[in-house]
Design a protein that fits this description.
With 261 residues, the protein is an alpha/beta fold. The protein has one domain (4-260): Vaccinia Virus protein VP39 (Rossmann fold, 3-Layer(aba) Sandwich), CATH 3.40.50.150. 40% of the residues lie in helices and 16% in strands. It has a 7-stranded mixed sheet. Helix 6 (105-111) links the parallel strand 2 and strand 3 (121-125). Helix 2 (10-22) crosses helix 3 (29-37) and helix 2 packs across helix 4. The longest helix is centred in the N-terminal third of the chain and has 24 residues, at 49-72. It is globular and about 50 Å long.
Length: 261
Amino acid sequence: MMKNESKTLYIPLYGKALVSRKGIILRDKKAEEIWSEEVFSLGGKSKSKWLAYFMGMRAAVFDEWLSKKLSEKPESLVLHIGCGLDSRIERVNAPFGKWFDIDLPEVSEIRRKYYSETEKYKILGASASETGWIGSLPDAENVFVVLEGISMYLSETAIKNLFAALAEKFPEAEIIMDVYTSKAVKASKFKNPINDVGASALFGVDDPLLFESGKIRFSGEICMTPEEKINELSGFEKAFFKKMFAGKFAKSLYKIHTFKI
């Protein structure tokens, strides 16, 4: 049986499928295909078009970061931890050394229905809260680690342990991770769409320096809602989204941080 935290994967999947069908923000035919095949009922805020736009923008920002990094270091290993049913492997148009899409075994089982492994691409059923699997990964001089939509379901200790295990395994790595702030965690008790699928336990990060240790260093913050993506909306939708999802208050709830090892 799929855990409630795993069910949250259907929220961004729906969002990416919706914006792709509209031809805005993110082109993701795979999300359209999978959403049409998967039998999962979303309701309430989970099917909000505003949330869909936000999910699409978040994915696009992560894609652009990874594409840029891979263009600079094309032989790198990519670890997409908490991948859900995301098709980043198809959206990112850049060479890579090897790519592992990693999620819980129950999610990886569904993923295998839609994605085929190759010599360079693997699907791994493993938990981000446990680090034993990291030792079994192939050696690599450089690694890019994507943690999208997962940190809020982990604990501070789990994230620190994950970073430490990555630092022990690899000589160099760069990590991109979105986080809730503590303000967002408090607000989530009342207005978070994840409540629609039964997920509730959340972790918030106010200071990214919390994760600095040894050779792990905070390296920056990235805008979640870039102007060029907002400009793909028009009229009332553009004005409303900009005010509600890209204003000062929204930016105090949700952030993207990067780290270097």
